[in-house]
Amino acid sequence: MDTIKALLLKELASEFNTTKKFLALVPTDKFDWAPHAKSMKLKSLASHIAELPEWISLAIHTDGLNFATTPYEEKQIENNDDLLKLLEDSYEKGTSELMQANVENFDKPWVLRNGEMILGEWTKYETIRVSISQTIHHRAQLGVYLRLLNIPIPGSYGPSADEQWF
Question: Which of 90, 98, 100, 103 has the fewest CB atoms within 10 Å, i.e. is most exposed?
């Protein structure tokens, strides 16, 4: 296997395991809660985090995404089992697609847009990295939500204030 794919797969697995710990803590009775009027609802944030590993297949199989022609549709979840299944299915698909990907295509362009407005221009490789970075970014947001709801936060890259395992 190509070194770059092996490194991405290792990182993806690590982020999956950490993300699973966070998503398992999402309280379904607070799905409609948000810390601020401009913030996503907890359910929307959690389902978006769960779907992000699958965005790797978008990077591999398309040249971009245009929200004007393909509007974002939130994945429907009803409970934690749905949420964790969405994460696991997304991770399996992202991992499978990455394992089969041809690294020679990783330098091809990929564009995220909303109509004529370009939101991001990356290579396919960079788009894969952005999807992993988005998982980390949104998982950090989820950590703030959980903290504000007085739910103990698991460690990510080391201990947390609630999980002292070093």
Answer: 100
